[in-house]
Amino acid sequence: MSEQQHTDDSTDSTSEKLVELAKRRGYFFQSSGAYGGVGGFYTFGPQGAALKGHVEDAWRDRFAVAEGNMEIDAPTIMPEPVFEASGHLDGFDDMLVECPDCGESHRADHIVEDNTMYEDAESLEIPEVEEVIAEYELVCPSCGGGLAGQAVEDFNLMFATNIGPGDSDPGYLRPETAQGIFVEFPRLKEYARNQLPFGVTQIGRAYRNEISPRRSIIRTREFTQAELEYFIDPEVDEPDLSSVEDVEVTLYPASEQNKDDGEAFETTIGEAVDENIITDPWVAYFLGVAKPWYEAVGVDMDRFRYRQHLAGERAHYASDCWDAESEIDGNWIEMAGFAHRGNYDLSKHAEHSGDRFTIFRQYDEPQTVERATVDPDMSYLGPEFGGDAQAVVGKLEDLAARDREAFDGDTVEFELEGETHEIPVEKTGFSVDEETIAGEHITPHVVEPSFGVDRLVYTVLHHAYREDEVDGEDRTFLELEPEVAPTFVGVFPLQSDDELEAQADEIVEDLREAGLSVTYDDSGNIGRRYRRQDEVGTPFCVTVDYETIEEDETTVTVRERDTTDQKRLPVDELAETLSAIRAGDLEFEEL
């Protein structure tokens, strides 16, 4: 059982201020407040919905449009057989422990992580977690009651529902958007002209009935995922790493995590692949694509790393998995997972549905192969096995495909429902024939970058939070990237004046026609209006003053959020200039 240093999970003053700001300025707040609120559900207000939408648009531009991948929008409710096939019904669990004193339920691994030196208690087995709780004499976070000796149990995280009235079919709210892509593969491959590789993206809601949701929108019961499922032929398809090989990344591989003094280190994607630190080149490719994208939307690269999953926490079907993590309050939180899922998902859905989840791989040249087949005498099997005759045919076909030597004698043996049966080989119609084939059906492998949008939004806000002093007064502002800021420009008439207000209205209309998000504010003194926009992260403010309407050349004052520097700009050039700044083609300092 490995031990690792765990940092304190207490909320620092920055987070407290950020959550208060988020509620006050309309970023996010707990839902259903009029009814006392409900844990794990949050509403994104006007600013938060806009920021979240901009982040999603930026993700779509990079991972769907720029990569040439298609996008779908699947239902959030799916029938039970989907989750039987995917394994979620049996294995999508968290560890629950119930306090004997107050009856509150908690995630046992979180209690261990918050109060001991164990950082990845989720990877421990239940008996080990029970041992740690007893050894450290851990207590209930709600009432302080002792938890030693209490049973730790698996708790399935899926929300159940019924589809249709009366004798309705059971269904579940999806715990990940990925299954909506996997189950539609037989049709999606047709849209891709049955050619590998191809990718399918989806941005949408997912639901997990968390035992103990916490830390505002970091761990909730309803959240948004942005996922890419990239389907490849593992024997043929290789990524072109030339575009990402020089991308510098901070890596925290499993080998370092298992050391007492292990640390994350700087390297490049190319070096990490060459040195076999990142073992899967497709995972390496998407790590290289994602890193500059994270930086572009406002994640602080000094507080960002990729951490490799330890063997105990990696999904059984994943050959390798890395998380994108951001530092918040002294802790590292997962924002995305990058995994090579193999052919597990498609194989399982093929097995359970009976549909074909394969792609035909064309050979360069036709090949002649020997193929063992059976053509059983049904006039013999029918009387001999009755209703099981067709099952016998299937058993014989499987046996011929994997062990043709079983047919070398006069009789052949096979098992059916736990019993051994024997029939004459001559009744099986067994033969081995040469066949010329042009290709074969393969089950593609899947590489999956899966992004948590809500956690990314929180990270962007937390990493953008600033406090300084302007003109002797304390100021709070969000240093958001222009690409994702909810509002790009605020327009203010300096005072209540019909002429100033009319000119400001015209400017607002012109900027909106140029595709910029604009807010108009004429309430309070100009300094107070600046402070309001600083707090919501608006990059620029335009003030219409008396010089605007009195001078021969109509100009306005444009104020930049971060430095509070101001410049006079012509009104007729304003939309073009601000659009160029937002697109990254011009810097404010260059004006």
UniProtKB/TrEMBL annotation:
CDD domains listed in its UniProt record: GlyRS-like_core (cd00774), GlyRS_anticodon (cd00858)
Residue limits of the Aminoacyl-transfer RNA synthetases class-II family profile domain? 16-482
Which subcellular locations apply to this protein?
Cytoplasm
An annotated GO cellular component: cytoplasm
One GO MF term: ATP binding
Grouped into one coarse class, the protein's main location is: cytoplasm
Q: Does the keyword Aminoacyl-tRNA synthetase apply?
A: yes
The EC number(s) attached to this protein equal 6.1.1.14
Name a single GO biological process.
glycyl-tRNA aminoacylation
Q: Which UniProt keywords apply?
A: Aminoacyl-tRNA synthetase, ATP-binding, Cytoplasm, Ligase, Nucleotide-binding, Protein biosynthesis
Q: Which family does it belong to?
A: Belongs to the class-II aminoacyl-tRNA synthetase family.
**Which PANTHER family does the record match to this protein?**
GLYCINE--TRNA LIGASE, GLYCYL-TRNA SYNTHETASE/DNA POLYMERASE SUBUNIT GAMMA-2
What is the protein's given name?
A: glycine--tRNA ligase
